[in-house]
Write a structure and sequence with these properties.
Elements lengths: L1 H15 L5 H14 L5 H13 L3 H72 L5 H69 L4 H22 L3
């Protein structure tokens, strides 16, 4: 009896397979799919936003290089113009100071000569006893006037000479500050060159990126050469 029960139970299990209908299969697949969680819209938007916000590393560095190169170009051009103007001003002021120095030396020479003539004239007046004659008095007065003029002119030339000396000193100070700025630019260019070399090694397998880095390196080297000419 036990064997007969086992045989009947086995036949029932075998009969289940053939009676599975297409509608049942479709219902079972739909139920399985319904149980699989779909990605939410917020999650998808977050991923897309993250992908847009994270640009390529080399592109960021390239943009930074380009911006700094433009700033350095403008700064170097401004320094070139200021340096040229300062040189012209200093040359003019040095020539003017030299002219005043020569004029002062000539005025001092004329003043010494006039003082000698004045002393000779007074001595001759006392010797000849003609101190009260009109001619001698006019000559003496003329000498006094010329001495006063030369002394005043000497004081004025001294003031102008000191003024131009101060101008030259101020211009030298400005040029010194310009040299310090140029050295800062040169140090910055050296830093950019080192960064570009590191990136060129890092991205050497990317031909297009490598060409962009090579172009940036050429610009940096050109700027470095221009800056070194001012040091």
């Amino acid at each position: 009896m036990t064997n007969a029960w086992k045989q009947i139970h086995r036949m029932k299990r075998l009969a289940i397979g053939p009676i599975t209908t297409p509608e049942y299969i479709e219902w079972r697949v739909r139920r399985i799919n319904d149980n699989i969680p779909e990605p939410s819209r917020e999650s998808s938007q977050s991923i897309e936003k993250h992908l847009r916000v994270v640009p390529y590393e080399l592109e960021i560095i390239k943009q930074d290089f380009e911006r700094r190169n433009v700033e350095l170009e403008k700064k170097i051009e401004q320094m070139e113009e200021e340096k040229m103007n300062l040189r012209l001003d200093v040359d003019v002021q040095k020539l003017e100071a030299e002219r005043l120095r020569k004029g002062k030396a000539k005025a001092e020479e004329d003043l010494d000569s006039l003082k000698i003539d004045y002393k000779k004239l007074r001595l001759s007046m006392r010797t000849a006893g003609l101190g009260k004659t009109l001619e001698r008095w006019l000559a003496l007065r003329n000498c006094d006037t010329r001495i006063e003029f030369l002394e005043a002119n000497e004081d004025r030339q001294n003031e102008q000479r000191h003024y131009f000396k101060n101008q030259v000193r101020d211009r030298d100070h400005i040029m010194g500050e310009a040299v310090v700025q140029i050295r800062e630019v040169a140090d910055h260019l050296q830093t950019l060159a080192v960064q570009a070399d590191v990136l060129s090694v890092k991205h050497e397998l990317e031909s297009s990126r490598g060409q962009e880095l090579a172009s940036l390196l050429r610009k940096i080297r050109v700027l470095s050469i221009r800056v070194k000419s001012y040091l």
